[in-house]
Specification:
Elements: E1 3-8, H1 10-24, H2 32-35, E2 39-46, E3 49-57, E4 66-72, H3 80-91, E5 95-99, H4 103-112, E6 113-125, E7 136-140, E8 158-162, E9 165-173, E10 180-187, H5 196-210, E11 214-220, H6 224-232, E12 235-246
Parallel strand pairs: 4-5, 10-11
Antiparallel strand pairs: 1-2, 2-3, 3-4, 5-12, 6-11, 6-12, 7-8, 8-9, 9-10
Amino acid sequence: MNLKVVKTKLEAIQPLRNLFLQKANCQVRYNSCHERGWTDSYLLKLDGREVGYGSIKGQQIKERDTVFEFYLIHPFKKLASRFFQKLIAVSEAKLIECQSNDFFLSSLLFEFSQNISSDVVLFDDHGVTEFRVRDVLFRLRKKDDDMFEHKMEPIGEYVLEREGEVVATGGFALHYNMPFADLYMEVRQDNRQQGLGSYILQELKKECYLSGRVPSARCHISNKASKATLIKAGLKVCGFMLKGDIKNRKK
């Protein structure tokens, strides 16, 4: 049995990556790394046949040290540990980062890494809410809208207007794997803790679906307010971003 890991171009792994995305059926947080040219691609070959792939990320070539995607066609998953060991050796990766809802790679993370930690919570849509805020209008942002200073998120294409003033903005990022999109919003400081965050998220979810996308979201694991707001808006925790140091590798 001849196992090989061969560096290749992104196009060569796309058919296998399509299978990975179909199997995952969730928002892949680092999907855009491929499109931005921040990845190295490797084919996994068994006796000359292409049976899987691995991807290493890092914005600069010299920084590409993190395994973040790893896929084997189902009949060959019993060889996962052997192929993963070879991928580490060939790529000289030092870290593994993955979503806990990617059960295949997360199982390898626990096998091959140490000092595992998480700083991001992942959410997917769970239920429909029907919040109403009597004095607030949800609408598209206008060019002449007077925007408040945003400290956490970009200015969104949708706003909440109260008494002629923009008190919240939000939108959904589209640089994720189809059909998923990432919700974001920010409420003006003096209008927080009034349910506006959950209300704008509720309305953004509708717009997201009407655009042919499935809403997802994330927040820092220590941000209790954002987590509560997302859950109130009908989303649920679906995973965590996990990161670990590959054993016996020096950074």
